[in-house]
Amino acid sequence: TVVGSGLLVVPRAQLTSGARYSIKFSLTFFTASSSSTHVVDITVDQIPTATITSLSGLNLARGNQNKFQVSVAFPSCVPSQAMTYAWTLSDATLNIEFDLAALSIPHDLQVITFPPFTFVPGHQYLLSVAATVVSSGVVASVSGMPFSAIPPRISADVVAPALVDASGSISVVVSCSDVDQTSGACNYAVNCLDNAGVVCHDKLGAKLVPTLVSTDNVNNIATFSINLNNAYAGGVSLAISALVTKNGASAASLTSNV
Fold this sequence. Notes:
- The structure is a single chain.
- The protein has about 260 residues and is mainly beta.
- About 0% of the residues lie in helices and about 45% in strands.
- It has no helices and 17 strands.
- It has strands spanning about 20-30, 35-45, 50-55, 65-75, 85-90, 95, 110-115, 125-135, 140-150, 155-160, 170-180, 185-195, 210-215, 220-225, 240-245, 250, 255.
- The strands form five sheets. It has a four-stranded antiparallel β-sheet, with no helix packed on it. The chain has a four-stranded antiparallel β-sheet with strand order 10-11-14-13, with no helix packed on it. Strands 12, 15, 16 and 17 form a four-stranded antiparallel β-sheet that branches.
- A hairpin with a 2-residue loop joins strand 15 and strand 16 (about 250).
């Protein structure tokens, strides 16, 4: 008995996933007295599929560090294999592509991390990734996954004394609450209106400007002082309110009457 063998190698990248191929081979005996032809049908396994997941959840607030991960699923009969990754990011609103290398953002890992303030609230972004199987060169990719950043969800509160001396000062405490706990500090502004709905002013009509006394960026509190200096007679009611801003978001407080 004579035993022989032959080997046909076809690069995986040249075959279409899900397609059915026929391999035809002939056996010819050395004597060339007879030969036989055989046909083998094969179906190519599906190539791996890739999906992108936001590790930061659905709320991509501007002041947060935001992470995305690509996951690759192989066919059931194919074991997981070593991969290389290549990410790209575009701003669809401005129609530009980011140079991630220039921004010092590693873009060849399974997880890509964007530092705070990368994304502008209201802009639409497209994230793509190509995951390549090292051994075969087969690519699983996601092209142009859309997402957008939102301003952080903040709220404001103002506390002022209910009663002050007409010659004294109003001490106003403003607090800023950030549900998303984004990085960066809150910015504060205090408004004062008299009972006629006019901006608080002295006897000559000059605006009474609230003075910032202190800011606590740990507890997100700011203290202001408004010097009345007998600008109004006793019994006049003043309406104190505040506006806070942070990372593109703004919130107004309710009014505190003095």
